[in-house]
Amino acid sequence: MPSTRKPALRVGVFGGSFNPVHLGHLVVAEEARVRLRLDRVLFVVAADPPHKRKATLAPAADRYDLVRLAIAENPAFEACDAEMARPGPSYTVETLAALRAAWGRGTKFFLIVGQDSVADMPGWREPRKVLRMAELVVAGRAGYDPASLDALLPLMPRSARPVVLQTRVVVSATEIRDRLARGESARYLVPDAVLGAIARRGLYGTGA
Ligand code: ATP
After folding, report:
1. Which residue, 13, 110, 175, 183, shows the most beta carbons closer than 10 Å to its own?
2. pLDDT mean over 52-70
């Protein structure tokens, strides 16, 4: 008799400031979707820091809207405001717990991080638990040594290894903010719809 059990949903969790979202993020998310056969990739937008906001950090509501515009044409991509809705600092361990509660136990989570973020992971809250709650997917980033992954291995469940995506899109949100602030073009580094919204809202010095 054929089994009627539904296969587990496979959900990528891609967190960041997305300040603003750019082609590097989109390429990483798409590469992860295809390579890991993900049903969804959630772009989890980091909240505003509770006390003072960094001058270069656009409000979370704007960053979230920009993500929605950037991913509108990909039915597997979804913007997630789970961290924006919670007061105080956001810890990945709490975000994964909230997502597990929302998506149900039959969901398998994949945590997608850029190689630069891997170095910070040992300092995260409960990194071992994070690495048990989701499979780790690391996106290669130009200028980062593959040996930087070694620091993670002692924190990972036995015999687990990160999946490494060979993406090499040399673009960062810092570069985009700098270009916009100098009045230079960021076209083709950021989707057109996102650039339009940035200009209309006067974000990143475009209104000056
Ligand atoms: P900033 O320049 O402001 O530090 P960023 O471009 O690194 O920003 P974030 O929103 O901080 O963007 O990144 C979210 C996640 O995406 C992080 O895990 C980061 O490592 C990863 N990421 C961002 N850009 C790239 C890229 N070009 N290639 C691979 N990973 C990336």
Report:
1. 13
2. 90
Read off the tokens for 115: 């190689």
State the pTM of this model.
Answer: 0.95
Find how far residue 123's CA is from the centre of its chain. 18
* CATH for the stretch 10-205: 3.40.50.620
Q: Mutate which of 28, 35, 44, 180 to test ligand 1's pocket (most atoms within 8 Å of Cβ)?
A: 28
Of all protein residues, the one whose alpha carbon is nearest to atom 7 of ligand 1 is 172
Q: In what order do the strands lie in the sheet with 9-16?
A: 77-80, 40-45, 9-16, 107-114, 135-139, 163-165
Distance CA 77, CA 98 (A): 19
Cβ–Cβ under 8 Å, residues 109 and 11: yes
Confidence of residue 9 (pLDDT cuts 50, 70, 90): very high
More confident residue, 93 or 207: 93
Q: What are phi and psi of 137, to 5 degrees?
A: -125, 120
Please state the domain extents for the chain: 10-205
